[in-house]
Each structure stands twice: as C-alpha cells, then as structure tokens.
## 1
Amino acid sequence: MATHKVVMFRPYPFKVGEKINIDGGPRGGDWEVIDVGERNVKLRCPVSQREFEWDRFCYFVDEREGVQWPRETS
C-alpha cells in the first residue's frame, strides 16, 4: 500500500467568550465568540459590535499568549 503526505484538518471546538483572530479570507480579523451551536458559531466584532452567525468553518492553527486584541488597524 502506498503512503502519501496528507494534510490533516480538525474542526476547532469554539467556546463562548473566546477572543479569536482569523488570519485571511472574507472573515479575517478579530472576533469574540458569543454563541456556539451544533452546526453554527456566532461571532461579534470587538470594534463595531456587529454580530454574525456562520456555519462552523475554522480549524486550529496556533495559540499565543500576550497578543494585542483587538489589533489596531492601519
């Protein structure tokens, strides 16, 4: 049986109250998790306070301490 290099993805287990940063894409930026359903996640922008509900879509990449949040925009 042949072996291959395979990239593995695992859905991120969102928790209410988490402060997250999405790097890139149409949802890129800083968000606060305000509700988590079985299939959806509801996020709030910390600057505009606008809220959005989307199908779960994020995958865990990295976790860092001491990060400014929300980040200043240029």
Note: The longest strand covers residues 29-36.
## 2
Amino acid sequence: MTHPASPRALAPFFASTFFWNLALGMAQVLIPLYAYHLGFSGVAIGSLLSAPVVAQLGFNLVGGVWTDRVGGKRLALVSAAMLAVGGLVYAAAASYAVLVLAQLCIVVARSIYWPATWSIGSLLPGDRSAQLGRLNSITSAGQIVGAAAAGLAIVHLGYRAGFTAVALIGGAVAGGLMAAFAAPAHRAPATALPILATYRQLARRPSIWFGLATGYMAGLPFTLSFSFYPILLVEQGFTSDEAGWLIALRALGAVGAGVTAARFVRKVTARGIPVGAGVATALTIVLIAVFTHAAPISACLFLVGLASGVLTLYFQLLASEVSTLETRGATLAIAGMGWGLSHLTTPMIMGALTDALGIFAAFRLFGAGTLLLALGLGPLHGWAFRGGRPR
C-alpha cells in the first residue's frame, strides 16, 4: 500500500500540475500571436486579454472560499475542464467576440486553479516551504515546455492545431491525473461564513494587503508573457518559435526560484526579500526592451522569472502563515488577487502605450512605473508588520 506521504503517492498531483501548466504555457504564446496574426490593434489585444479578468477577480474569490468548503481537488478538476473548453473555442474562433468568449473560459480556469492547487500544496506532508517551492518549480517547468511547444506548433501545425493540443493536454491529461490523486483529507469549516463576510474579515488585516501587493508584483512577468512579451520579441526580429523558446526562460527562472528560494524564504517578516525581488523584477522589465541581442534578452527573461518566483513563494508562505485551515483557500485567493489585478491592468496599459508610443517605449515606461511600485513595498511592509509580527 502506498503511503500518503511517499513521492509515489504525490506523483499524480505534481504530474497534473505539470501538464495543466504545459497547456497554459502554450496558450500564453498562442493567444497574443493569434490575435496579432488576425490583425487586431494593441488596444484590442490588450482588451482581449484584460477585460475578461474582471470576471476572474470574482471567480478567484469564490474559488478561494469553495476550496475551503469542498476541497482543492474538486476545483482543480473543474479548472481542467474549463481549460479544455477554452482551447476548443479558440481553435474554432475567428471573430473578436468568439475570441473574448474563449478567453473568458481560460480566465475562469486560471482563477479557480491557483487557490485550489496552492491550498493542496500547503497541506502536503513535509516542509511547507519546500513543498510549495516544488509545486512552483513544476508549474514553471510545465510552462517552459508549453511555451516552446507553442512556437513549434505555430510554425509546423498552425494555430488551430495548437489550441486543440491545449484542450487535450490541459483537460484530458491534467484532469485524469488529478482525478487519480489521493488528496489530503479535506476538513470543511464547521460554520461556513458567507463569502463577503469571510473576505471582510480578512480585509481588516494589513498583512493580507501586503500579500496582495507582492502577488501583483509577482504576476507582472507572467502577465507580460501571455500578452506583450511575444509581440516585443517578434518586433525585435525573432521568429514565433524563437519567441516561444525565449519566453520559456522566464519560466526557467521561476523553476530556479522554486528550487532555491525555499531555503531562504522562511521569515515572512524579512523586508529585504520582497523589496529586493520587486526591484529586480522592475529593472529586468525595462532592460528586456533596451537590449536587441538574444544573449542579454535571455538573461533578463531568466532573471525576471527568478525574481517573480521569489515573490510568488513569499506571498504563498505569508498567506499560509496568517491563515487557519478553515480559511487557507480564501486567504490564498485574496493574496493571489494580485495576479488577477496584474492580468486586468497590464495588458490594457501596455496596449494603450504601445499604440501611442510604440512597444519599446511602452516597456520602458511600464518598467519605470513598476520600479516605483517595488520601492513602495518598503513602507507598506512596515505597516503590515508593525511590531515585528504580521498584523
């Protein structure tokens, strides 16, 4: 009989997260390049990617509460099904309205997937930081393979075949593996508060707001990867398959963060880790648009993945430490809303800047604004941890 703490027992969960993120990594490259291929403007592409995120913010909060009520495994299965539907709709889409419908399916899948799997990861046996770091590394490894596969799919098979592969891998393969996983025993809250009451209670805590801010910074490179990084790289003269390989380096940096950061991201009260990682994230966003040679661009994409990976692990640990088992999913969801806000604001801002100034100037201005936000994490940390403890 397989022990629940053994690597063999945990293998279906980690394999499922790998394949789900492989499918998502493909979609990150396919979606903006497909919209660009169809001739949409920067604002239209930005709107396509950000407008459905309004729904994501709501589904994210609902998903967090329902993770606490029904367990992360069930919601992860729903997410796999929605990712499959989104891939199939994209494969048949040609008009802007159908593209928006497909993107809405992808957004719903993302919004409920992260609180569900992060909650499962925080409950796995063993060291919490190490298990979350392992989960983040496997997540990013899947995105590496997916980004590279998307570029190859565009060149050799076309967009429709690429989106069909997203549906099969993210739905059938990832969903089947998650169904085979024996998840940690779920304990529903004895008294379930209404959704608004749960989040009203959490919103009174300054540490939750700091977690949301670090989540926003962590999500920026991820958002740019499925929106304007592919377009920037094509404008710099790279082919679509080369762009896929280069974008995979961001996820490779996040793999490195998942493997190494678990060793030193242990005290959520330490200010230097989130502020330093935020500043590094902002600087690399600027530098990617400054360089034109593949070598420094590759280094910047790797470093931005590393820095944002540290921020991701930080806010996951922060949410885990300030929550109870009954509110773990909801706390991770509200901290993870930073990612949702990044997905909402970044494509629209970048789309408007690109149309007005060109994509290179847009990246430089956006990176400068990100640097100001990163520096603002310092005083925000002081407010959230006054007295040396999370408030």
Note: The mean pLDDT is 81.
